[in-house]
Amino acid sequence: MSTDLCTLMRDPKMIPYVKQSLLSQIADQAASLGMPSYLVGGFVRDLLLKQPVNDYDIVVEGDAIKLGEALVKKFGGKLTPHYKFHTAIWHIPPLLNNERSRLDLITARTETYSQPGMLPTISPASIDDDLRRRDFTINAMAVRLDGDDFGALLDPLGGLDDLSKKLIRVLHPDSFIEDPTRIFRSVRYEQRYGFKITSQIGDKALETLSSLSGDRIRHEFDLILKEENSASMLARLYDLGIFGAFDPPLPGFNERYSDLLNAIPPVVFGVLGNRIVTGYLLWLIDSKVEAVASLAERLNFSSELRQISISAIQLKNDLPSLKSASPSLLTFKLEKIPLIVVYVLWLVSEETVLKEFLVRWRYVKQKTTGNDLKAYGLVPSPRFTEILTRLRAAWLDGEIVNDGDERELLESLL
Ligand code: CTP
Description:
Elements: H1 5-9, H2 17-32, E1 37-40, H3 42-48, E2 57-60, H4 64-75, E3 78-82, E4 87-92, H5 94-97, E5 101-107, E6 109-112, E7 121-124, H6 127-132, E8 142-144, E9 153-154, H7 159-165, E10 167-168, H8 175-178, H9 181-193, E11 196-197, H10 203-210, H11 214-226, H12 230-239, H13 275-284, H14 289-298, H15 303-323, H16 327-334, H17 339-349, H18 352-359, H19 370-375, H20 382-396, H21 403-413
Parallel strand pairs: 2-5, 10-11
Antiparallel strand pairs: 1-2, 1-8, 3-4, 4-5, 6-7, 8-9
Residues 41-42, 55, 57, 134-135, 139, 179, 181-182, 185 line the site of cytidine-5'-triphosphate (CTP).
């Protein structure tokens, strides 16, 4: 594994020139304030693995909010400071980065956990301390950004060695207990990179995990569902007993649907794909409504996610009878359901009528309008909807096939 980070960091295939120049401006600004600066965590890990790097987390030994303020003063943009965490988000002006983007500026810090599973208390510290507060050795490396030490690797915990041995190792035995979301993170890295978790998770960590807030757990599932290997991550979590640690236990993911997690809706379907929502629907569609209602409560689903998860289950249960329904009945029913639900049910069932609905039937409309009915001398009333719906149903069911047919049918209804 190449450890010549200087060369890697100057390689435009790894870091585009515009980003390199941005990083060097930030490092200079930090240095002028007397703050050594580093890129840390995922950036260093992915750079060493020669994977695309996306996350540019900048840590300074000093006050990251002050650095942010100086950057805004010099280059513009906007700063969102988080005083409690000594961090800031710099919303970078497009001129500096070719695009609208944001960068996390972090004060090197220690974290102490007053109680397992609680969020930590933070105090400013050295970069070495900052690396020691982290989750895994492979995420506990930093690369220096400023001055003559540009490109120097800081690896006090053997991250590089574990990276080359493909191991996910926590920094101390209580790590999973202090922050049980690290269980999800370990599985995410393990399955993403084909590594192996080498640390014991242990019963105490599982117990603490079961007491975490719904939002924190759901966030971890959201991150998993965004990943290309999410199916193997969910399977691994299940095998590790993570799903069983909750009360009631979380339903397992149906492995038959694994490939569907990466499906992209065909353009002709006109469905806006959403990986995370599709993932939850595929995960929950075979469950019982009551089980999903209690899971939605436990993971604090948004009311929208809760509602579409339940409607996916109901629609799947109704599918045998819907298959034999007329196109009009089916269309009128499916129109009341979010398109993503119909799409996911099509993914799992490959039922032709669902595809017909998505591609054709939902666009079929009668020609007659309310104004036409008024022109016939009718006074607006619920009867309007009845007539127009009847005409649309006739088109959908092939009872009428041209404008003349529609006019004839309309006249027979008046
Ligand atoms: N981190 C940690 N414990 C956590 C969350 C984050 O120690 N519970 C540290 C790790 O050093 C991690 C860094 O914060 O590398 C940034 O976190 P995050 O952005 O979530 O992860 P990345 O390493 O960027 O990984 P990914 O590619 O999954 O985003």
